[in-house]
Model the fold of this input.
Amino acid sequence: MSLSVKDLVVEIDGRRVIDGISFDVPDGARLGLIGESGSGKSLTALAILGLLPDGATATGSIRWDDTELIGMPDRELARFRGDDIGIVFQEPRTALNPIRTVGRQIAESVRIHTGAGKREARARAIEEAARVRLPDPESIVQKYPHQLSGGQRQRVAIAMALACRPRLLIADEPTTALDVTIQAEILKLLLSLVEEQGKSLMFITHDLAVLAQVATHGVVLEEGRVIESAPVSTLLTAPSSPITQGLLRDATATLWRPEGGDR
Done:
């Protein structure tokens, strides 16, 4: 078992915004958290990584293997970020430092978590840029975020998240800001990297059609509560809750499907 979340409660300034969420992400699993804006999806991810905003507190249990993360000092928790759990945020424009080259940012992640020297980390940055299918990796790592397209910036964010080979990747609505064509490319890339490296995936989205491309099990949230948990195939064909039924009606279906058939 990689990640186990049990009875997670998050309060912000005394207001309960996550109310008893529980789910597991076993090794190699692809789980999706889905719900409308404000349902608690992103806060759940931030709680896992110990990155909740000021004024927020988390109780319950978040276990990584046999280690309890809730209550762990930040310095200790930091070693799990990147090494064991990587995250790709929704908007790379805000996640990337605008005054540093993208190669330096990828290399910095490698140096922090592996202790690699400057030359080795730069070589790894080029290698990771190639792994996420960025064109001309040796040239592109010398560029700044504003010189890249939205899809390229998201590929850089994925490279940073995977550079230290974490066992679990959390992807927080990583395609929302992209057009449909680029969205399909990023989803396909994420899925191929996760499968190729044998990683677990926790994918966060508001779009059931998108979730169907990358996850096999879905957890539906509303107002900080789990209202349905089922295989994605069931959510698509026989959703039991009105919220899931609404998500299915609102799904922005895409024509792209992973190579090899349905998932």
